[in-house]
Amino acid sequence: MKIICVGRNYADHIEELHNERPDAPVIFMKPDTALLRPGEDFYHPDFSEDIHHEAEIVVKINKMGKNIAEEFAHKYYDEIGIGIDFTARDLQSKLKAKGLPWELAKAFNGSAPVSDFVSKSQFTDLQNLSFSLTVNGQSRQEGNTSMMLYKIDYLISFVSRFFTLKTGDLVFTGTPKGVAPVKIGDTLVAAIEGKEMLTLHVK
Ligand code: MG
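Above: inputs. Below: predicted complex with magnesium ion.
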């Protein structure tokens, strides 16, 4: 399986990092070794002093497809979850300044914790879902999928022109504002529509 991530998909997060608003989705990938399943701990790597949490709605692909039309994209996923796109912001800033790829800052071991997945049918509108992240009980990120610059179906259509999507692939759909560093000892809790979905300890 592969993990496909979307960057700069919420205007408030683009502003907090002083990035430019993209004219097409910003896409990068993480290997399967980035995945952390519920119950696994995140081990803070020693190559960064500034690992940021980015809480994101995650879509799980349920059948193979390429060149998927946007109007049919909804047929290619039936479950969603919530994940954290951990980012070594100090390393990413150096790479960005040199115009180099972000992989070392984004795709390292354990950089993609995800919750269990739930049926999308339990939500009335996937493009109007609130989600949140707390750290040690304090609110850090509050988002709503209505604020995405590029909607889920468009993202799936766009990505499938470049990469064949396969069953089990995950799509991280971008983070709202509030990204901040984590430290050893922190406990992160991510929720969708107020329902706690993922608890993660930083070790
Ligand atoms: Mg992200």
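Residues 3-201 form a domain with the Fumarylacetoacetate hydrolase; domain 2 fold (CATH 3.90.850.10).
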